[in-house]
Amino acid sequence: MKLMHTSDWHVGKVLKGQARQEEQIAALAAVVAVARDEQPDLVIMAGDLYDNAAPSPDSQKIVTRALSALRATGAEVIVIAGNHDNGAALDALRSWADAAGITLRGRVSEKAADHIVSGVTAGGEAWRCIALPFLSQRFAVRALEMFEMTQAEAQSTYADHLQRLLTGIADEAFTDPDAINLITAHLTVVGGLVGGGEREAHTIMGYAVPSMVFPEQTHYVALGHLHRAQSLIGRCPVRYCGSPIAIDFGEVENTPSVTMVEVSARTAAVIREVPLPVGIGLRTVRGSLAQLAELETGDAWLRVVVSESPRAGLREEVQELLPRALEIRVDPAMLPTDRPSREARAERSPVDLFNDYLTQRGHADDATKALFEKLYSEVS
């Protein structure tokens, strides 16, 4: 069978105040175009459809249209919730999804069978997929109890919880030696390289699990959460497909892509990365005002590190030179190093300290200083 693996769309993401709706529409159109060209039997979307748990109506329209377009290619479509998604809200859409021929799983269910999706390709190949939405630490123990684990067994790490869940579901799902066994989940695997836009609280070691949690009889594990496309070493093929669009400036080195996989019950998975058009790029540029004035940046969104001493109006000068600058920083090498002692700071007023802070950060202007002084006088 052939499957396409995508994840981490983050529709609705606003970058430093800049909406990117048109870029997101273009990126998902590119994903759909790959599906039309490749004609996979199955498309797996491994979580983070949205960038936040309360997506706007426009964001929901973008996502539902993209999922419907993927289904219209003839592929089966499986979608799980990521840590940015509202699992309960996604589950509320299951009636729509079922009618559209899309399998949607937002939260961990009380029944293992609810996480087992089965199908047969047009060529007659049977497949089984364990679809496990993002599982937070606080719900991990409860999820174990759903599957009748003892209290003693629940006193273990997040990785232990997850492995027991997967093993329990796999014992029910992976029983046919002639079927292709798949898993999709949204989590962090130890050794994975972060892309820059992941939510830090859900990538720290408390949430990271070893690749050994996935049963060895699995033919392919389709993961979401890390935004950089990469394969990991494990008892079975484990892969992040990456995001189809750079989410923030920490991801400028990532190549937007989807992953194509060809596999059978008797042969190993053949994995192929399919790059996607970059669209409007993200760039980090550095230099003095004179150097920045010479740059050709096209239509890219910019993060600017300016090599000038902090002063009032510097930000505005940079913005005038580079109107598409979304983030402007003063090079740390240009910041004052002779910070006053704690005792010296204690003798100064909050107004003076705030003015010093603005100057050091290159944000100093009379209006901001006057507003702070006015507010401080009202509350002091």
Automatic annotation (TrEMBL):
It comes from the Bacteria. Heterodimer of SbcC and SbcD. One of its GO terms (molecular function) is endonuclease activity. Belongs to the SbcD family. This is Nuclease SbcCD subunit D. The keyword Hydrolase applies. Residues 282-360 form the Nuclease SbcCD subunit D C-terminal domain. CDD domains: MPP_Mre11_N (cd00840). SbcCD cleaves DNA hairpin structures. These structures can inhibit DNA replication and are intermediates in certain DNA recombination reactions. The complex acts as a 3'->5' double strand exonuclease that can open hairpins. It also has a 5' single-strand endonuclease activity. NCBIfam families: sbcd. Keywords: DNA recombination, DNA replication, Endonuclease, Exonuclease, Hydrolase, Nuclease. Residues 1-90 form the Calcineurin-like phosphoesterase domain. It comes from Allocatelliglobosispora scoriae. The keyword Coiled coil does not apply. GO terms for biological process: DNA recombination; DNA replication.
